[in-house]
Design goal:
Dihydrodipicolinate Reductase, domain 2, alpha/beta, Rossmann fold, six-stranded parallel sheet, eight-stranded mixed sheet, about 300 residues
Length: about 300
Amino acid sequence: MNAGLIGLGDLSLKYVKGLALNNFFYLVAVSDNNKNAAGRLSYPEQRYYESYKEMIEEENLDYVIICSPLSLRFEEARYALEHNVNVICESPLSTSKKEIDELMNLAKKKNLVFNTIYHFQNGEEVRQFNKLFDPRKIQRIEVNINNPYSKDGLNIDDNKLDLKGCYLDSAVNILSMIKLWLPFNSVKLVNREFVNAKNDDAPVYAKVNCLIDNIPVVFSIDWREDVDNKVTYLTYDNKPLTIYHSSQEIIYGDWKYTFNAMDRLTRHYYNYFSSFDGLSNFEMTKKIHEVLFKFDPNNQQ
């Protein structure tokens, strides 16, 4: 099968190794309206298009992979589906539940694959946790995410405004990881705290305290401290277990597991693309985005 990549920003650099080992499709073309996009030189063998529409119309594509900014994903995914092309898309898919429902319904109507990428799910430390431990023994979950996306602690950096704030950017991946452990049959918000940026109507800090399937879950996302660190603390079988996502480690009692043979984001996409099976993840995507919007005071739909 032939695939085209839409969006050649910094994140596309992390795709290269995974796409090279993918056995499901072959990347034949790439597109970005910026001729000098960061990832363009990383795909020298693929035909380049400034317009993703032209790429879809000119190439005999079976799939498009959407790696563009959040504000563009809905239109790009809809255009591909309307032209009978299967879609793989970064998450979140949109800031609107209505738009996500439209994409899911269109893909189902046309019998096309729509698979959403949740890169936290494909972290090696998360995959290994799922192999080595029993999620039924999880009694409490706390996730802390720090990203250095605000130089002054008040304003979102200009080059990160497309992310639409810390909550949408990171909570979708936090929830995707938790969804591997809990079915999300019941979700209850206990309390939340959001601090919006001065230069944008989007948060630089978010903390959510909730119950998911009666398991206490707390997660915080902070862009204000100029720190890049991601860690999950579990109470597992009445004992502490820590998953260090940044260093790709698990520590449980005297045991320490390390899985950092590859940088973190490269590993996420290496795992995702090298194991892609051509199936849709409609129900997982629907549930994750429902909970994502449920907890967001800026997005009550």
